[in-house]
C-alpha cells in the first residue's frame, strides 16, 4: 500500500477544516438572534409545540423524561394492541445508523442486501446521525425506497452537492463550501408525500429519530421526526429538511443550519445546529431512559433487538503517515471519529445489557482499502455499497458485542471481519466493472 494512502479521505476533510480556521480570522460574525440560555428548554422550533418533538441527547431532564416514557408506552400500546390483548410475546426490532459522509453507501447497500435476503424486518425505531440521517430516513420508510438510497449513494458527484465558497467565507460566510446542491437533494426527496408517510407511521407507533448538535449549547439534540410530521404544522416539512441538513453539516466545512424558534411570550430567536457527529457518532436513547419502564407498563414480554450500523472503520489499519500537516491532521481526525464511534457503541451496549436488549453491530472492515478520488466519489461509493450489499445478503456478519470486548467472544468479532474479506474483494473489483448486485 502506498505510504499514507489510507489517510487521503481524512486529509481532504482536514484540509477543509484547516482552511476554514485560517479564513475565520478574516470573516465577520454571522448576524443572528440566538436563544438566551434560560429560554432554550421552552423554545419551540417554528412554533411547533410538544415535548416529544425533541429532547437533549445527553440529559433530557426529569419532566421531559417522564413525558417521553409515557409517550413511548402509548405508542407501544397502539402498535402492539393485539399482541398485548392475546398475551403473546412482542418482537421489537430497532436499528441505528452512524455518521460517515460518503461511507453511508455501506449502510445503504446493507439494506438492499437485507431486502433481497428476504427477512428484513419492519423497524419500530430507527435512529440516524449525519449521513445516517439520510440512510435512516429511507430505512424507516421501508424497502420500497431502496432504489432511492442506491441512487443517492452511487450517482452523485462532489460538484453536484458542494460548491467551493472561499470568497464568501472571506466576506463573512459561515463555511468554505456552499451546500445548496445538497439542500436541493434533500428537498427533492423529503416532499409532502414522504412527510405524510412519516405521520402515518407515527400513528402506527413507529418512531424515526435524527441527531444534531446544538452548537450554542455544545450538546446533542434528538429530534422526533415522526412526531414532527404528525404535528400537522405547515412548517413540519421545512423543519424535517432543516434537521436532516443540520445533522450532516460538518462545522466550518459546511454551513450550519439556523432553526427559527419561538418562546412562549412570542419572541423569535434562532438556534445554530451542526453535524450530530460533533457530539455523538451513533445513538439509541439517552441512558437515563429505560425501556424496562415501558415493558413493565405494557405487562407483556418484549424481546428487543437493536442493530447498529457503523458507516466507518472502527479498527484502523496500520499506515505510515506522511510528515505533513494535512496528513497528520487528517489521520488524527479519522482516529478521533473512530474512537468516538467505538465509545458510543459501548454506551449502547451498556443500555442494552441493562434493559435486556439483544445487540448486533456491524462496521466497515479494515481490509477494505479502496480510497476515494474526491469527497463524494461514485466509484468509491459503489464499491462500499456493494460491500454493504454482500453483508446484508449474508445476514450473519453481526457482532454481539462492541469491538475488542470480552475475552471468549473474540471469535464472534473476528468472524465479522473475516467473513467480509471476500465481500471486500468483490466490492473492490466492482469499482472497475459495471453492475448492481441488488438491481
TrEMBL record:
UniProt keyword Oxidoreductase, yes or no: no
GO biological process, one term: lipid catabolic process
Low complexity: bias regions: 420-433
Keyword annotations: Hydrolase, Lipid degradation, Lipid metabolism
Classification via SUPFAM superfamilies: FabD/lysophospholipase-like
Region annotated Disordered, chain positions: 420-439
Residue numbers annotated as active site: 130 (nucleophile), 275 (proton acceptor)
Extent of motif DGA/G: 275-277
Annotated protein name in UniProt: Patatin-like phospholipase family protein
Organism: Thermohalobaculum xanthum
Amino acid at each position: 500500500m502506498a505510504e499514507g494512502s489510507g489517510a487521503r479521505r481524512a486529509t481532504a476533510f482536514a484540509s477543509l477544516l484547516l482552511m476554514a480556521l485560517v479564513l475565520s480570522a478574516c470573516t465577520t460574525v454571522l448576524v443572528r438572534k440566538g436563544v438566551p440560555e434560560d429560554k432554550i428548554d421552552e423554545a419551540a422550533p417554528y412554533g411547533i409545540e410538544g415535548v416529544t418533538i425533541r429532547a437533549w441527547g445527553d440529559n433530557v431532564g426529569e419532566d421531559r423524561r417522564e413525558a417521553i416514557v409515557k409517550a413511548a408506552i402509548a405508542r407501544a400500546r397502539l402498535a402492539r394492541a393485539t399482541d398485548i390483548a392475546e398475551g403473546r410475546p412482542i418482537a421489537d426490532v430497532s436499528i441505528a445508523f452512524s455518521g460517515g459522509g460518503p461511507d453511508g453507501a455501506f449502510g445503504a447497500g446493507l439494506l438492499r442486501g437485507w431486502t433481497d435476503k428476504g427477512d428484513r424486518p419492519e423497524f419500530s425505531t430507527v435512529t440516524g446521525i449525519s449521513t445516517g440521517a439520510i440512510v435512516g430516513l429511507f430505512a424507516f420508510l421501508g424497502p420500497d425506497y431502496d432504489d432511492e438510497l442506491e441512487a443517492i449513494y452511487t450517482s452523485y458527484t462532489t460538484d453536484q452537492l458542494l460548491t467551493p465558497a472561499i470568497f464568501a467565507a472571506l466576506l463573512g460566510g459561515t463555511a468554505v463550501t456552499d451546500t445548496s446542491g445538497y439542500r436541493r437533494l434533500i428537498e427533492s426527496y423529503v416532499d409532502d408525500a414522504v412527510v405524510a408517510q412519516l405521520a402515518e407511521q407515527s400513528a402506527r407507533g413507529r418512531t424515526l429519530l435524527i441527531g444534531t448538535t446544538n452548537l450554542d449549547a455544545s450538546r446533542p439534540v434528538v429530534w422526533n421526526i415522526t412526531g414532527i410530521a404528525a404535528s400537522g404544522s405547515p412548517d413540519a416539512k421545512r423543519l424535517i429538511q432543516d434537521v436532516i441538513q443540520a445533522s450532516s453539516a460538518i462545522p466550518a466545512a459546511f454551513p450550519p443550519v439556523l432553526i427559527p424558534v419561538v418562546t412562549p411570550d412570542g419572541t423569535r430567536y434562532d438556534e445554530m445546529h451542526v453535524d450530530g457527529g460533533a457530539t455523538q457518532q451513533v445513538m439509541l436513547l439517552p441512558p437515563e431512559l429505560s425501556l424496562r419502564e415501558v415493558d413493565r407498563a405494557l405487562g407483556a414480554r418484549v424481546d428487543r433487538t437493536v442493530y447498529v450500523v457503523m458507516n466507518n472503520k472502527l479498527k484502523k489499519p496500520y499506515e505510515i503517515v506522511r510528515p505533513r500537516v494535512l496528513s497528520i491532521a487528517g489521520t488524527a481526525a479519522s482516529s478521533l471519529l473512530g474512537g468516538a464511534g467505538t465509545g458510543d457503541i459501548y454506551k449502547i451496549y451498556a443500555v442494552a445489557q441493562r434493559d435486556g436488549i439483544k445487540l448486533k453491530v456491524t462496521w466497515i472492515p479494515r481490509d477494505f482499502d479502496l480510497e476515494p478520488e474526491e469527497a463524494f466519489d461514485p466509484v468509491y461509493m459503489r464499491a462500499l455499497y456493494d460491500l454493504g450489499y454482500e453483508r446484508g445478503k449474508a445476514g450473519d456478519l453481526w457482532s454481539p458485542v462492541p469491538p475488542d470486548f470480552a475475552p471468549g467472544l473474540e471469535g464472534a468479532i473476528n468472524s465479522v471481519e473475516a467473513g467480509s474479506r471476500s465481500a471486500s474483494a468483490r466490492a473492490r473489483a466492482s469499482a472497475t466493472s459495471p453492475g448492481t448486485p441488488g438491481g
